[in-house]
Design goal:
Radius of gyration: 33 Å
Strand content: 15-25%
Shape: globular
CATH topology of the largest domain: Jelly Rolls
Number of domains: 3
Largest sheet: 8 strands, antiparallel
Number of helices: 14
Number of strands: 28
Helix content: 25-40%
Distance between the termini: 66 Å
CATH architecture of the largest domain: Sandwich
CATH class of the largest domain: Mainly Beta
Amino acid sequence: MEIRICFFWFLGLLQYYAIFVQPSATTTNGGPVINVTKHISFTNFNLDDPRVISDVKLLGSAKLSVENGAIQIPDESSSSDVFDLKHQAGRAIYSSPVRLFDPGTQTPASFQTTFAFQFSNNSSNLINHGGSGLTFIIVPDEFTVGRPGPWLGMLNDACQEDYKAVAIEFDTRQNPQFGDPNDNHVGINLGTIVSNITIDASDFGVFLHDGSVHRAWIKYDGPKRWMEIHLGSDGHDDFPSKQIFSGPLDLAPHLNEYMFVGFSASTGNITQIHKVLSWNFSSNSQAFLRFPSDETCENKIFLQKSDSVQSSTIQKNKKSHKEPPSGFLIFVTVAVIALAITIGFFCSRRRRGSRNHDNSKLTDKTDRPRPPNKPRRFTFSEISAATRGFSEAEILGSDARGMYYRGKLPNGCQVAIKRLSPEFLNSQQGLDKRRILKEIGAMSRVRHPNLVPIRGWCHDSREMMIVYDFYTNGSLDKWLFGVGVLPWTRRFRVINDVAEALSFLHSKQLAHKNMKTSSVFLDVSFRAVVGDFGMVLAATESKRFEAAVSQTADVFEFGIFVLEVVSGRGRLDSEVNREERDLVDFAWRMHMKNEKAKVVDPRMGSLVNLEQAIRVLDIGLLCTLNESKGRPNMGEVVEFLSMDRPIPELPASRPMALFPYNSATGLCSGYSCGPFK
């Protein structure tokens, strides 16, 4: 009863303060309206201009072309291989954010931009044009690069629900799954890759993929929520005459106060060079200044004009401010007393309740705030909700250790979840749960560009799961053995990336212990990241020994991994004849016959660098040697791949009892290659 009285008394004081005290104690926050403007101008993108270097930020495959003085996505000068330009994505943005939204009035800024751009195929052998398109983008950060192909480098579908973005796309590929009308259209995209508004450029006599230089002009009136788009051939006039769109458009829900502006582009199965030759941008937004307070410099200077004026002003200020502070102080005093009484009643009731429950269990400790990217413990209910109750539709794959699921966290980000099987946890080869938790803790602290980050884990009496980042391009085995052919340049890059990851793990006295193509994933730029690793801590002498043994096993497995990547086939292939079924045995026999070119994947055709591929093949064979016969460590392998160190000469013939290799499982056993789980 007393608490209720205090509560209503406190509400009454708040109402009194709001009606009588607040108006006299505060000043108006409104002020004069000012214009916040921004102007960006690049007549070209020559590297001789220091503004280009400092003000244009390049991400992904975006480059500055020295020959054309343009932004170029992708950079054809970096590779002579047309296939190496496939599935590329890049962004070029202005390095400083621009104010594009007034949160006070919820009004978008007005802006206009014009830019000259050109699409061209980098090879006359390509029959199909387009791949995939260019966008003018407004994005919230300067770090993200979207997916290649139909995503145009604009969005990454792993985390896009709360990703505010606006794009005007100039698309030269028809993607029916995104509602594209044809391969020559302009789209307005608001927070999604599916265009909210689509315009057929052919209706206006514009063909984006004809190789000519086009100019776009985009104007947006923020207060009126009205957009106009003009498109035509580039000339000396900055204003193209053909208006392809004019209509209402509200950008407010898709803007933060400050955003980054620029361009993104991508390629898919068909390559295309996207160039931005010039760019002008200007914006105008309104902001409100607050009225100056009595403590501004202007007021102090005014008070110093004369003693009489100073005296009268001081007396006037004392009178004018005497009542509001006193009313305010009375209110604060009474409010504090009421609040103290309320807290006192509440605490006394809590103490009485705690005496009645002396034997109850202590509540769990409140989790401390954690950095946003720091791995954390997930509850079983969180994982279950993310995977829709471990739905079969969310299964990504499985192995001897457990099942992989795709999950979606409440913030919209996709994750990969490894659910360890009871058989693995209870097997003699499996580790006890305390040991696994310890290893997961060690795994979560390891950071390397070529290692899959761990988001967290889940552990209760029934389950043990590990939560990883999700890679939409999937695992390497699906690209290597599935539909399509990975070009040699990408395969060589993947081998280098995996070698760097293993070398880093070994330098930390850790080991992977599960090295295979299904443990390697490809990011949006098709760079390799290694996941699904189980490490060994080097806390004691026995664990140091176990780590050393597991590291030699990693090298052996890396050797087989290299053979698989070079040959484009699995270590045991039932579809070939018996003599070639065992990949390691087949590769050694081809080495003995000096016919190692037969091991190289013939599907890559004449575009493969055969000399480089055979050198890499030799490195793979070297890694499958018995440890006592010259098997290198991963640090040496990295040096071999970077050409910093000559490769030791391989034995002319395959050594007898090279390793206890089990052709039925594809694994080796014993300390010559290390234990495998």
